[in-house]
Design goal:
The complex is a heterodimer of chains A (about 110) and B (about 110). Helices cover about 0% and strands about 50% of the residues of chain A. With about 110 residues, chain A is mostly beta strands. Chain A is globular. Chain B has about 110 residues and is mainly beta. Chain B has no helices and eleven strands. Chain B is globular and about 45 Å long. The chains are: A mainly beta (about 110), B mainly beta (about 110). Chains A and B meet through strand 5 and strand 10 of A and strand 5 of B.
């Protein structure tokens, strides 16, 4: 499976600011996904990052709050904008095929104060 | 009804015993089923995939699928303390794009 890295691994941010999370894969992949895992909860898909086009967002997530870039087949970024304490969570990128195996990066632990 | 439900646990088993983790899902059209292991503070790690009814074995792990009952389980034989983690069941529903429904997870503790 692909080796996936994320930056930063953790951050503490003030409310109202924005944080951009990077996801790098060691091989070209068609599909990259962004998930959120809130404390004590399971994973929720935020969006699918599409290379060359806008991301596809799941219900409850909007581009203004979570803009995503996918400039090539090995890299994607997720920005958490205008943060509030409710955005405190672990953010995970994954790679794989729709409806098939997905592999996760190490995650970014975000705390908003 | 949630898309994917797991027995919430926590589940404790003695070392060497069999741990049984269960998952039910709501979409009858789902074709693929996955078990992930998540250690505290770490990201989920794929440990088993199953696509057909019946059993699939991989080392100490056995996944069991019954599509008629919409039920998938994970058995861990000869449980080790290193198996202590949260186990997540994941089921992509049919025809809903890229959605990948995860259960809330079952916390397993193997007692030495």
């Amino acid at each position: 499976s692909a080796v996936i890295s994320q930056k930063p691994s953790r951050d503490i941010c003030q409310r109202g600011t924005s944080l951009t999370i990077q996801c790098q894969v060691d091989s070209q992949v068609t599909m990259m996904f962004w998930y959120r895992q809130q404390p004590g909860q399971s994973l929720t898909l935020i969006a699918t990052a599409n290379q060359g086009s806008e991301a596809t967002y799941e219900s409850g997530f909007v581009i203004d709050k979570f803009p995503i870039s996918r400039p090539n087949l090995t890299f994607s970024t997720l920005t958490v904008s205008n943060m509030s304490p409710e955005d405190s969570s672990i953010y995970l990128c994954s790679v794989g095929q729709a409806g098939d195996e997905q592999y996760f990066g190490p995650g970014t632990r975000l705390t908003v104060t | 009804q949630k898309e994917v439900e797991q027995n919430s646990g926590p589940l404790s088993v003695p070392e060497g015993a069999i741990a049984s983790l269960n998952c039910t899902y709501s979409d009858r059209g789902s074709q693929s089923f996955f078990w992930y292991r998540q250690y505290s503070g770490k990201s989920p790690e794929l440990i088993m995939s199953i696509y057909s009814n019946g059993d699939k074995e991989d080392g100490r792990f056995t996944a069991q699928l019954n599509k008629a009952s919409q039920y998938v389980s994970l058995l861990i034989r000869d449980s080790q303390p290193s198996d202590s983690a949260t186990y997540l069941c994941a089921v992509p529903p049919l025809n809903t794009g890229n959605q990948f429904y995860f259960g809330t997870g079952t916390s397993l503790t193997v007692i030495p």
